Amino acid sequence: MRFRRSRGFTLLELLVAVALLAVLALLSWRGMGSVIAGRDSIVERSDELRALTVVMSQMEEDLRRSWAVRLLGLSVPPVGFSTGNDREPPSLTILREAPGDDTTQIQRVVWRLRDGTIERGFSAWTVPIPGVTNPVPDIPFTWQPVVRGIEALELRGWLDGRGWLPAGVLAASQASEMAAEAARAEQLARAAQMGQPAQPGQPGQTLPPGQAPQAGAATPASNGVLVTGVEMVLVRRGERIVRVFAVAD
User: How does pLDDT run across 213-230, given as a tens digit for each residue?
Assistant: First the structure.
């Protein structure tokens, strides 16, 4: 009686099957990794776009609320700039109407770039008190990081008749105008103490008797450097993001 011998898989066949399964597993793993990386990239870009949208919306709101402050005729311009330094580029300072109160309160807001992060700081602000060393109380800012990963921040302001000017140039012009206005106010106060009214057309000119200043009239300091538009340029990953804001109600 003859027995028939059953034949199984050889060692070579098993090695080939294991190799094919390993290749399929590797391809599946790499495909799954690509899908996960793509999903993470989409989520990251969506978060970046959402953060940039918050920056644009908040700055537009701050500038819109500065229009009411302009009508108060303060010696400090409602939209100002700083000259910047080696560590930080020029920043944007806004005097805006504080929300949520029946009475008009002024809030000071600063937008700046620090260590690759756009920050928004805000604090209460009061009208300067003449004749004192520190005319404006030093109220600390509350800083909020808004968006990260910013390589550069460029700011420009629009002046009627002069066009777009860099933030540094505007900061120097505003500082010069405010110093001239302070000198005019000091000369006016000195003339009032001596009982000698200022000559018409000269710095420190007084109003005729019985005539009060008009409500909302802008002072020469704020009128000379009145910013009616702001251009913000953000550089992120080599891309330039440009947004222009109109300072109006």
Answer: 343 343 444 455 788 899
Contacts 24+ apart (CB under 8 A), 51-54: 51/146, 51/147, 51/148, 52/147, 52/234, 52/241, 54/146, 54/147
Domains of the chain, residue spans: 45-192+226-246
What is the residue whose two structure tokens read 């010696």?
A: 75
**pLDDT for 7:** 65
Q: Which of 185, 179, 249 is nearest to 213 (CA)?
A: 185
In whole angstroms, what is the distance from residue 20 CA to residue 28 CA?
Answer: 12
* Residue % of the chain over a pLDDT of 90: 25
CA distance 216 to 111: 26
Rounded Cα gap, residues 230 and 228, in angstroms: 7
Which tokens in the block code for residue 17? 């099957």
Burial grade of 92 (CB within 10 A; 0-12, 13-18, 19 or more)? buried
The Cα 130–Cα 181 span in angstroms is 12
pLDDT, tens only, 168-202:
888 888 888 777 776 777 777 777 777 665 554 44
> DSSP readout, 48-116?
HHHHHHHHHHHHHHHHHHHHHHHTTT-SS-SEEE----SSS---EEEEEEPSS-SS--EEEEEEEEETT
